[in-house]
Amino acid sequence: MTPLAAPHLSLFRRSAFGLAAVAATFLSACASMSNTSQKGGPDVGLYELRTYTASPGKMAALDARFRDHTISLFKRHGMTPIAFFHVYTPPGQPADDRLVYLMGYKDRATRDAEWASFAADPEWKQAYADSQKDGSLTSKIENIFLNATDYSPKLDVRSAGSPRHFELRTYTANAGKLENVHTRFREHTTSIFSRIGMTNFMYWRPVADQPALDNKMVYMLAYPTPAARTTMWQAFSADTEWVKVRNESEKNGPLLVSQGGVVSVQLTPTDYSPLK
C-alpha cells in the first residue's frame, strides 16, 4: 500500500501546486485588468486641442478623411486620439463649420516627432492629396497645448452608454487672480458640479510658452443632453453653497475679466470619436 500511496500523494501535491499557480496567475490578471479599467485610458502628459474650420461645403469630406484615414494613422504613429467634436448648433441655427478635437502625447518632444512621422507617411500623403483635389478641406487650423491641473480627474476615454453633450469652457482671469480661480475650482466648484450631476471631464492649464493664453484656464464638462446642460447650469447658479463660495472668493473683486471672461463652446461627439 505504501509504495502505491506515495506516488498518488505526490501527484496530488503537484496538482494542487499547479492549480494554485494557475489561480494566482488568474487573480493577478484580473487585478491587472481592474487597474487598467480604473485608469480608464492611457498615460498622457501633454494635451493638444485642435480646431479646424472647414471650407464651405467641405465638412463631410473632412469628417470622411478623419474617419477613413487620419485617426488610424495617428494611432500608427503613436499618438492618442481622444475625442472629436462638431460644434453644437441649436435647432434652427446655421451650422458651425468648426471641427474640434483633442489629442494626447507623452510630452512635447514626443508630440513633435510623432507629427513629423505622420506627415511623412506615404499613406497620409496619398489620402491628403486625394481629399484636396477639389480644393482645401480647411480654411483655418488652430491649436493650443495644455497640461492637466493637479485637481483634474484622470483621463477616462471610456464612452457612456449613449453619446453625451460636451462643453468646452475657457476662463480669463483678472491680473493676479488665476490661482484664486484654480483654488475655487479645486476646493469647491468641481464638487458642486458633481453634486448637481455634471461630469467633470478634465481641467487644464495652458502650457507656459503660449503668451496669448496667459491668465487662462480651460476645462471640459459632459452632460446627458443639451437640455440637461441648461437645467444643471440653472441649478448651479442658484445653489446656496455656490453663491456663498462665489461671494467669499470675490470679496476683493471679481476673479474673471468682465468682457469675455467666460467663453463656452458646446460640442457634439462625431460618429468616429473614440470618446462619446
Can you put this structure into words, describing what you see?
There is one protein chain. The longest helix is centred in the N-terminal third of the chain and has 38 residues, at 2-39. This protein has 276 residues and is α+β, with helices and mostly antiparallel strands. Residues 1-39 have low confidence and may be disordered. 44% of the residues lie in helices and 25% in strands. It has an eight-stranded antiparallel β-barrel with strand order 1-3-2-8-5-7-6-4, surrounded by four helices. It has one domain (46-269): Alpha-Beta Plaits (2-Layer Sandwich), CATH 3.30.70.100. Helix 2 runs antiparallel to helix 4.
- Percentage of residues assigned to helices: 40-55%
Give the class-level CATH name.
Answer: Alpha Beta
The backbone outline, from C-alpha atoms, is: globular
Q: What is the rounded distance between the termini?
A: 68 Å
Largest sheet: 8 strands, antiparallel, barrel
- Strands, total number: 8
Beta-strand proportion: 15-25%
CATH topology: Alpha-Beta Plaits
Give the second-level CATH assignment, the architecture: 2-Layer Sandwich
List the helices and strands and how they pair.
Layout: H1 2-39, E1 46-54, H2 59-76, E2 80-87, E3 98-105, H3 108-120, H4 122-131, E4 138-148, E5 165-172, H5 178-196, E6 199-206, E7 216-223, H6 226-238, H7 240-249, E8 262-269
Helix pairs in contact: 2-4, 5-7
